[in-house]
Amino acid sequence: MAATGLLVLLLISGVTTPVDNAIYDLHARIWRYTPDDDVVIIAIDAKSLDAVGRFPWPRSVYAQVIDRLTADGVRGIGMDVTMSTPESDNPHNDQLLADAMRRNGKVVMPVFAEAVALGGALQEALPVPPIAQNVAALGQVDVAKDSDEIVRGAYLKAGLGSAYWPSLALALQQLDHTAPTALPGLRDPLDNDASPYLWMRDNYVLLRYAGGDGTFGRLSFTDVLNGNVPASLLKGRWVLIGATAEGLGDILQTPDSPMPGVEYQANVLESLHRGLLVTPLNFIAQLVVASVALVIPLLLYGLPGLRRNWQLLLLSALVALTVCVVLLRVFYLWWPPTTCLSIIGIAFLAWSVFIRGPSRAV
């Protein structure tokens, strides 16, 4: 009973979370995979800035690229570029871009939360009306940073008041009719009872990163703009357009290495497409798994080779770590093992001090 209470207390407190995160990070670095060639990044890189000019660019430039991608037969286009205010120099360019998006029919634009004023209420930042009215879908680009600023996962749904916007990657798959019917991820039980002014997130998943920055195929924006990219490199592929140039756009810290936001979006899209997303267990499931992992060694105690308490301690730790790895590798479920390991260590310490110690004294 005491062990159960301590287990619950440790789970609620989150005191073991940093160690669990370190364990997941270590595993993520050795659990890489080779991505397929179905996701391509069109990079707003230093070469493109030199050729096109200072950022932000005229939206007519994006319209030209989208028309080229349409002609090349891409599978879908995810724009990791914000366009929530009209173009100041030439507002007509907004309509040019909107028309190009309408002709393509498979473009997803980002939506995100921003404060109306410093410390004020949140609002959803949508593309300007001409673009919002002609884009195929909108996808939220919320980034799931942990308390240590490392991005280990993603929210497949998010929105103001309720998590109704799909992620950028999920929106692309929904347009392609390849999205999973039942979304994976840890659910938020408060999603339906939230304030309309709160940014809500749901279906949290951990990512199995393919690798560090530069893992996915990358083409320079200016090469696509000038028609220097063979159509064979783009036909039938999802295309993500975003910034990779230094000082332009977000650089996210992942368990492996820093990467630009568009590379992060590529990892989400590839993982979702291939069914590689990891679902963290909820509180009850964590409690059940930990209880089972603690009971198994006790049932085996007394068998040949398990007659000493240090052997039981070692077996208990091995069982907990094995359960963690099997759930992750086979079932794509994440069970943080450190709470269970802490209980094992505390129990062994208590036995050594309060039971073994006095008995030796006698």
Features:
362 residues, alpha/beta, 2 domains, four-stranded antiparallel beta sheet, 44% helix
Please specify the SSE layout and strand pairing.
Blueprint: H1 2-13, H2 17-30, E1 39-44, H3 46-52, H4 59-72, E2 76-79, H5 92-104, E3 107-115, E4 122-125, H6 129-134, E5 137-140, E6 144-145, E7 151-160, E8 165-166, H7 168-175, E9 199-206, E10 217-220, H8 221-225, E11 238-243, E12 251-253, E13 258-260, H9 261-274, E14 279-280, H10 283-300, H11 309-331, E15 333-334, H12 338-361
Parallel strand pairs: 1-10, 1-11, 2-3, 2-11, 3-5, 14-15
Antiparallel strand pairs: 3-4, 6-7, 7-8, 7-9, 12-13
Pfam family, one: CHASE2
Transmembrane segments: 283-303, 310-328, 334-355
Keywords: Membrane, Transmembrane, Transmembrane helix
Order of helices and strands: HHEHHEHEEHEEEEHEEHEEEHEHHEH
- The general outline is elongated
Count of separate DSSP helical elements: 12
Instruction: Quickly count the domains.
Output: 2
The mean pLDDT is 90
- What is the strand tally? 15
Identify low-pLDDT runs: none
**Rg from C-alpha positions?**
25 Å
The main sheet comes to:
7 strands, mixed
Structural class: alpha/beta
- The span between the termini is 28 Å
Helix percent reads 40-55%
Q: How much strand?
A: 15-25%
Quick summary:
By secondary structure, the chain is of the alpha/beta class. The chain has helices at 2-13, 17-30, 46-52, 59-72, 92-104, 129-134, 168-175, 221-225, 261-274, 283-300, 309-331, 338-361, and strands at residues 39-44, 76-79, 107-115, 122-125, 137-140, 144-145, 151-160, 165-166, 199-206, 217-220, 238-243, 251-253, 258-260, 279-280, 333-334.
